[in-house]
């Protein structure tokens, strides 16, 4: 046991990665996917490197590891170990470069134990995402994606995260980044990450700009539909107020055989319809079609006739007249009125269930 960490003289010149002491005493500092008691043993094996037959060379250190563990976890690592020609003291040598030493160490520790340290995930999430994708460690890749989605993506780094997500085949992360960029495009486009992306990946920039145009078009279309719905809702309220005034009377106007109600009215459009009826009754130009208010009143009366299901005895003036007039209209006008009636009926139906 005393010789379990002895290395050859040629190895002594290369610094070994420092072990992380106190794992058992700091259990609450770690998180993991595996059984805690088993994880203790696996992390200890990784930290001590007992019986290691592989040396993982990073940018700044050498990490002892076990070929069977790495090979079972990753087919890529298994192939690298098999093809490795370099040896040192009987141990095969493989290289994992391009990532910080601590990120590689956290990556290998996860392979052993499925354990991770919160601070390391927060600090090296992007590096671990790339490593887990390259070496096909699915559980770690899923973990990195989840952590990035929850709290690690910012306006400053979203352009970088998006590019890595595309390279690492993480569609959900791509979608999250895409939405964040669209929502905060002005701020994101001012970051260094976005400027670099414009130069290195113009195709991705073009896709985002096209999406931005689509989102803006959808927003305008939504506003247009909301505006249309508001108009149809007002027309429906006007129809209800018109029937109410002509059937039961309201505050200042109504049928001769009904007593006027001086109290407030529950129909929101009643006041406006009252004013319109008074003007219509007194206006000298209503028959000539020269008054805009009278034109509106004529249109409301015709719309009512098309919505009215009463065959005889409707209290609204000219209802029967307009029903007969429908038979004489041309197809173009008839289609316009049918569309208007359908829209008003749709709004009326949805308002009943809202």
From TrEMBL:
Residues 52-120 form the BTB domain. Gene3D superfamilies: 1.25.40.420, Potassium Channel Kv1.1, Chain A, TAZ domain. Residues 226-322 form the TAZ-type domain. GO terms for molecular function: calmodulin binding; zinc ion binding. Pfam families: BTB (PF00651), zf-TAZ (PF02135). Pathway: Protein modification; protein ubiquitination. It comes from the Eukaryota. GO terms for biological process: regulation of DNA-templated transcription; response to hormone; response to hydrogen peroxide; response to salicylic acid. Keywords: Metal-binding, Ubl conjugation pathway, Zinc, Zinc-finger. SUPFAM superfamilies: POZ domain, TAZ domain. This is BTB/POZ and TAZ domain-containing protein 4-like. It comes from Dioscorea cayennensis subsp. rotundata.
């Amino acid at each position: 046991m005393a010789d379990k960490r002895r290395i050859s003289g040629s190895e002594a010149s290369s610094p070994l990665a420092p072990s992380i002491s106190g794992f058992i005493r700091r259990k609450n500092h770690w998180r993991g996917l595996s059984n805690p008691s088993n994880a203790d043993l696996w992390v200890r094996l990784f930290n001590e490197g007992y019986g290691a037959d592989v040396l993982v060379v990073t940018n700044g250190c050498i990490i002892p590891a076990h070929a069977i563990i790495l090979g079972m976890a990753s087919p890529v690592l298994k192939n690298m170990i098999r093809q490795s020609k370099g040896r040192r003291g009987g141990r095969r040598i493989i290289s994992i470069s391009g990532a910080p030493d601590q990120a590689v160490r956290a990556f290998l520790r996860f392979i052993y134990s499925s354990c991770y340290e919160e601070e390391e995930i927060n600090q090296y999430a992007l590096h671990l995402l790339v490593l887990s994708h390259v070496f096909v460690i699915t559980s770690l890749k899923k973990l990195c994606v989840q952590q990035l989605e929850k709290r690690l993506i910012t306006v400053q780094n979203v352009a970088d995260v998006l590019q890595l997500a595309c390279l690492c085949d993480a569609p959900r992360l791509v979608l999250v980044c895409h939405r964040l960029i669209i929502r905060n495009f002005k701020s994101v486009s001012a970051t260094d990450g976005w400027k670099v992306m414009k130069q290195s990946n113009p195709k991705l920039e073009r896709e985002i700009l096209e999406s931005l145009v689509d989102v803006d078009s959808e927003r305008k279309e939504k506003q247009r539909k909301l505006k249309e719905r508001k108009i149809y809702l007002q027309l429906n309220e006007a129809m209800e107020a018109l029937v109410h005034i002509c059937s039961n009377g309201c505050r200042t106007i109504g049928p001769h055989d009904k007593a006027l109600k001086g109290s407030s009215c529950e129909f929101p459009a009643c006041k406006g319809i009252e004013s319109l009826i008074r003007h219509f009754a007194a206006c000298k130009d209503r028959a000539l079609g020269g008054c805009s208010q009278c034109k509106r009143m004529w249109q409301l009366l015709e719309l009512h006739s098309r919505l009215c299901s009463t065959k005889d005895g409707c209290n609204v003036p000219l209802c029967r007249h307009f029903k007969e007039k429908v038979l004489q209209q041309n197809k173009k006008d008839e289609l316009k009125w049918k569309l208007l009636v359908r829209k008003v009926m749709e709004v009326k139906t949805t308002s009943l269930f809202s």
